[in-house]
Amino acid sequence: MVWHDFAAKRRSTVRGVPQRRRTYGAVAVTLLFTAPLALLVTGSLREPGLPPVVAPPLLPDDPGLTAYQQAITHGDLVRAAANSMLVAAVGVPLSLLVASLAGFALARLPRLVTGTVIALSVLAMMVPATALLLPRFVLFRTLHLTDTLVPLVAPALIATSPLYPLIYYLAFRAIPADSYDLCRLADLTPMQTWRRMALPQVQPVTAGLAALTFVLTWSNLLDPMVYLYDRAAFTLPLALRALAAMDPHNQPVFLAGAVLTTLPTLLVLGIAQRRFLHSYAPEGAS
């Protein structure tokens, strides 16, 4: 009895050491990414028009929200945020839908066909995105779609990136073959198998790709610079760039706009993280 108690205590101690190290590592990473955000927020609380400083103080002498009011008014951030939200609301679900269907099809195709498609996808990922800007611009201009939000949503029709279907492919391949056999015995069609059985089992993958796609879509600056000219169609990154060009020395206003632009991505990443923790938490854990 004494030996079992000693062994149990030793096992708990051994397990506790890596757990503490992981906790310390998580705290260190959190502080590493929180420090720039803290300086961003404190810098946005300074009075607009003050001379630029090398590093904003931890707490300004007279903090206020005047910079936020000017950023919203001068940068037209409300309209830009609506445009960005529209692009994300259409592009993210569409990209996940196409990627999940393509990944599911890869997981069910014969091995030879799957290998060929994967090789072509890897080759497609090696093509620089900037090399496609000119032909895409010519295509959208011929279709009279420039200066609209359509070119920003169009990449979702091909899953945004060849990487996304490959990630779904690996996730669907990890599902036990017995699950697919049961679906065939239940006389389910491939679409019903994808919707009822396969997709619910890869929810953590969907949550992670949704967060990644949202962040990339929300922070996309290159495509709006190429396709958008009318200020009414600007997305947030482009509006923020225009705001910085108005008065490069008015740091508080620009930092306030940067804070407002960053908040949605932090919210989405936080929701995705909670989804991951909930999906991989042991049963019975609260």
TrEMBL record:
Question: What does UniProt give as GO cellular component?
Answer: plasma membrane
Record's family?
Belongs to the binding-protein-dependent transport system permease family.
Gene3D superfamilies hit by this protein: MetI-like
Q: Which organism is it from?
A: Catellatospora coxensis
UniProt keyword terms in alphabetical order: Cell membrane, Membrane, Transmembrane, Transmembrane helix, Transport
Name where it's found.
Answer: Cell membrane
Alphabetical list of Pfam families matching this protein:
BPD_transp_1
Q: Name one GO biological process term.
A: transmembrane transport
From the Swiss-Prot or TrEMBL record, give the protein name.
Answer: Sugar ABC transporter permease
Q: How does it sit in the membrane?
A: Multi-pass membrane protein
Q: Does the keyword Calcium apply?
A: no
Which residue windows are transmembrane per the record?
21-41, 85-106, 118-140, 152-172, 202-221, 253-272
Q: Where is the ABC transmembrane type-1 domain?
A: 81-272
Output the SUPFAM superfamilies linked to this UniProt entry.
MetI-like (SSF161098)
- Which PANTHER family is this protein grouped with? ABC TRANSPORTER PERMEASE PROTEIN MG189-RELATED, ABC TRANSPORTER PERMEASE PROTEIN MG189-RELATED-RELATED
